[in-house]
Design brief:
Elements: E1 16-22, H1 30-43, E2 48-54, H2 66-69, E3 73-74, E4 80-81, H3 84-92, E5 101-103, H4 104-116, H5 127-143, E6 148-153, H6 163-175, E7 181-188, H7 200-211, E8 218-223, H8 229-239, E9 246-250, H9 258-265, H10 267-274, H11 290-295, E10 301-309, H12 318-331, E11 333-341, H13 342-346, E12 358-361, H14 370-382, E13 387-390, H15 392-404, E14 412-413, E15 423-426, H16 432-436, E16 442-450, H17 455-460, E17 464-471, E18 474-475, E19 488-494, E20 497-503, E21 509-512, H18 527-542
Parallel strand pairs: 1-6, 1-7, 2-5, 2-6, 7-8, 8-9, 10-11, 10-12, 12-13, 13-21, 14-15
Antiparallel strand pairs: 3-4, 15-18, 16-17, 16-19, 19-20, 20-21
Helix pairs in contact: 1-3, 1-9, 4-5, 5-6, 12-18, 14-15
The structure holds glutamine (GLN).
Length: about 550
Amino acid sequence: MPTEPDTQYDSSLGSKFIFVTGGVMSGLGKGITAASTGRLLKNAGFDVTAVKVDPYLNVDAGTMNPYQHGEVYVLKDGGEVDLDLGNYERFLGIDMHSDHNITTGKTYQHVIEKERAGDYLGKTVQIIPHITDDIKRRIREAAEGTDVCIVEVGGTVGDIEGMPYLEALRQFAHEEPEENVLFVHVTLVPYSKNGEQKTKPTQHSVKEVRSIGLQPDVIVGRSETQLEPETKDKIALFCDIPTEAVFSNPDVEDVYHVPLVVEEEGLDEYVLEHFELAEQALPPEERTREWREVVTTEKRDDVTIALVGKYDLEDAYMSIHESLKHAGFEFGADVDVEWVFADELAEGYDGQLDDVDGIIVPGGFGMRGTEGKIEAIRYAREHEIPFLGLCLGFQMAVVEYARHVLGLEGAHSAEMDEETPHPVIDILPEQYEVENLGGTMRLGEHTTVIEPETLAYELYDDTSCQERHRHRYEVNPEYFEAFADEPLTFSGTAGNRMEILELEGHPFFLGTQYHPEYSSRPGEPSPPFFGLVEAALELAEATTDSDTHTQTEVSH
Ligand code: GLN
């Protein structure tokens, strides 16, 4: 990984805070805008962190449906958080903690627990000041020891759920010197039918912000193209900020280009000036340039990777998509992800995997789609297509091998089939009791010991790796002996837990019980993804002359 510049700023002065709100509608990419600004400040030598505020009542994202909310992102400390934290980790190159995701559930739970314990000494416990104080405390604690902390408030200004947070930010700003806090409002600037940029939605949303007592210092207009100078003037006039404080954030082909776009707009310089940090910042010519180099590598090749899953929603597998991109950057390759419905594969093979250069079977919970995933793995194994199985994908690779190579008919994971004659994947015996008491998930970073002279060893170039987990089931120790003979080997273990599997004689067949996708970063791709894309490129090259890599059908 490129070496990061030393922090220049004297942290004893306390953190600076960027509060980011969104207007008009959600899904504008305010998180990416915020993370991109953070990246530039990092490039300029500052230590940057972030806090994502999710105004929902869930305590964390652990139980949330990926189809509604996108993937559950897992932090090093085991926190199950909103996928936006993944963006912050990837853009800022940092590892965050669970307390960098503030939810209404967490805040209220804490305050109510304190109330029950009598900590409020008989006072009436209220949203203001008790909830707002707790929010402010959480923000300060998360920012501790860093130079700049970006606080993104999820949702849109005006949502009832977000009100206590905006009030907390208002108070926060009141308590801090002006140069320590910057409010950024990200809004939509749509086009009218006759191709004119319209500022009215922005004006309305800023009016809403101001009615809560907040005045944006910076407005970022999300639009298909750059904002016209007249558009900027108009926003400045009606929203009461200087024209220089209005920035464009046009559509780009890749989110990783957003830092480059906001840099061109001069957003970072404006922020540094506001924070009175311009002098401590590294001069532009000394700022790190690795980001630009990594994300703008010329794409000379392309490969297609099939993602065989349950939800046809990119956000539900966001970290996998990003990890593939990171690996692609290294090879100058465009990685095209082809969605394959696991359920459809189970109904009968219909050529869905004929033209792909690699197959990923991602993580998941529950029965739906598992037979299709098993079919995809069988196809990858029999047709020598590069394969990466992640968590459930790893477990299904074990099931597939047990059924079709070891001849253990009806083998399955006990999660999917309690009656299976061969529960090759099961709860570990020592976990049974804990499970009966309500269940525990194995979460967060754990060490895997890697066997030398294996594919895993080659990829990690080490005898161990630290990766993040989120699972309950494991390879059943009762079947270790059945699996003892090659070609399948468990090349990574943690005590009696099998963590990595690979297949001797196959161009690339790797399964991991953990989720390597959570620690992949631009410029620092995850080794299993790097290996998959490399193998896929080799396959693509070998098959350029023929139409498809195989004509044979998977037998059922
Ligand atoms: N459902 C499986 C388990 O609990 C796999 C989990 C996952 O893929 N994240 O072990």
